[in-house]
Structure formats: structure tokens, C-alpha cells
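fold-stage: in
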Amino acid sequence: HLDTPPTLVRNVPAAGPAPDRSRGRLRELAGLGPGTRVIAYGGRITTSRGIEETIAALPHLAEDVHLVMLGYGEPDYLATVWACAAEHGVTHRVHQVGPVAPHEVADALSDADVSVVHVRPTCLSYRFALPNKLFESIRGGLPVAAADLPDIRAVVEQLGVGEAFTGEDPTSLAATIEHVLADSERYRAAALA
């Protein structure tokens, strides 16, 4: 019963020149060479953000595909991440590189090959989330493999920046990542546009 309806302002990165992949920092920070394909994760390293699911998908991807996490997490959860990587035999393919300043996130991500935006719908807020990592990935010019949640899917499909995956099966996520990697330049061009 408000006299004036509220205005929705999305928390997206500021406009400016398109990022330059050569200024991306994930490979450098993780100590990876140019022959490595990088899955980017940006944000707080915590539960319900698809990190464990992405790690479980790694064994279903080529050996040159690595996960690089840009961000910070609590020691207890980081221990869970490393235990998950060990369980799946991919510890050597998982890297945590710490955070960068908020205004540097999109540029830091820009040398990755794909971004996974996977929020588990554990509550209504998460089901309808539009996380910063989605917009920072797009701003960084990255193709996106996204969770099949209503608003995330709508943005990814409307902008043509990637594909949504369904279900909790790691092979479904891996197949979507492979699909995006196979046509990455088309999705990258859409993200940059």
C-alpha cells in the first residue's frame, strides 16, 4: 500500500571500457600457464554456492580444466573444499587465489574461459537470486554456465552469454561447461556486447 512503488536498482559493476583479457589475473595468481582452461568462481567461498558441485564436475572434464576461486572463505568451509577436492582426486586442479578489491573483480576474472554461477536454491532468497558473480562475470567478458534458477536463467538467456544446467548431477554441470567451452567465443562476444 505504498504511495510510490519502490525502484529496483541492480547491484551491477559500473559501466566503462570493456575488460582486456591480457589484464586478467586468474592464471597468474593461480600459477597456471596459457594452455590451461580456467573455470572462474568469484565471491565468498561458502556453502550453497556450487563450489562442491563444480569440484565434483572436474573429473568429468579434460585434465587441462582447472577451477580458480577468487575470494575468501572461513577456515572450516575451506577445509571442506579441500576435502572435497581430495575425495574427487582433483586437488591439483583446484586453486584459491584470495580476494581482490571490489572494483578489480571483473578485470581479474577476464582471462578465465568460463564462469560457473551456481547458487543452490536452499531458500527463497537463493532461488530468486541475481548474484554479483553473474554480473561481474558478464562484465569480465566471460561465458557463463549457470544454475537453472528463474532469474539467473532469464539474464543468461536474454543476453545470450551462456547456458543453464539442470539438476544436481555433476555430469550435467560438466556437460554444460564443455558445451560453453566449445562455443566460448560466441558467448564471450555476447558478454562483451
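fold-stage: in (second)
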Amino acid sequence: PQGAGEVNALQEQFGQIDIYLFDQILRGRIGPGMRIVDTGCGAGRNLVYFLSSSYEVHGVDADPLSIAMVHRLAAKLAPQLPPDNFRVEEIERMTFSDAFADVVLSSAVLHFARSDDHFEAMLRESWRILKPGGLFFCRLASSIGIETQVQPIEGRRHLLPDGSERYLVDEAYLLHLAAALGGQLLDPIKTTVVQNQRSMTTWVLRKAISSRLVE
């Protein structure tokens, strides 16, 4: 059995990183030296490894308290990074330049969209700041596997069996968006159904050298 020391060492190195994001690292798709932007970074649960390794890390979140926590985390793990790398901003109005990032992370964020327009505005901005050839990693709630257990509220917003309200995508919509963006699906769309209470889907795209924004 793995000793407590080994577990602690792994937790120290990777924090509470999303296991599907960890998979992208293991496959060599995200490597040292890359510029990473975590959109909706929260308190930085997915940034521990990147901050403590040779990455240029940036993040945005609309919550000032979350960004304050990320500033403290970065000061500890990567004091060389400028504080301005982590900004209080809404995802649909980020101030990064076009084609800024090698990797854009969107983990458990887009399903908080208020409407189709809001969802596509956040997606457009995330895609805008991604370099051609860059990686877009997204985890979001979906209706896949629980189609008969969610209740429509308005548009793609639904009430889930766990009592939460989320903007839910499905496979057809994700495939449509990938084509509209000019993105290459790097992995099959993967979905985890959590005891029929909610469904989380992993959507990983490579931005084409010549791509476009959602119209």
C-alpha cells in the first residue's frame, strides 16, 4: 500500500487537480514552459502543479476573494510571477491579448452561464486568447446520460436531480461548437455520471492554425 508520505508528496505536488487535467499532463499535451490561463480559476485548485513547475501561469475569476487566495498561493509557489498575472475579471471580458495562451483551462465554469449568449460570450473569449495550435481543456455539466432526469427551466438551463441549476450541453451541441470554432477534438467526448445526480463532461480541443470564433 502507498504510504502516507507518498500521498502527502503527491498532494503537495499536484494539489486537488482535476483528474482529467492530470491526464492531459501525463500524455505530454501540457509541458513546461507553456503559458497557461485558467479562466474561472477559483482559489487555484488546478494551478498548484503549474505554479511549482516551469510554467507561465495566469488566471482570472470574477470573485475578488478567490483571486486573493490565488495571489497567496502564487506568492508561495511562484514568487517570480507578477501579481497582475491573476486578475479579477469576468471570463466574457478578459483583458489578455489575442492568441495569448498555449493552454486555456475552463474547469467547472461554463455551466454557470445564464443564457446561450452568456455561454457563447465566455467561450468566444476563451477561444480568442488561445494561440493557434493551442489546447483548450474544458470540464462542464451536461445532460449526457441523465437526459430524462433533468428538468428544463429556460433554454439550456436545467434543474438537476441534485437540486442545482446549470446550463447543460449535450454531445451534438459540443460537436457543433467544435466545428464552428475550427477546433479539432483531441479526445472522444467523455462523461461521468455521478449517481444519477449530475453529469460532468470533458471536452478537449486543439485550435487550428486558421480558426474562427462562434458566430
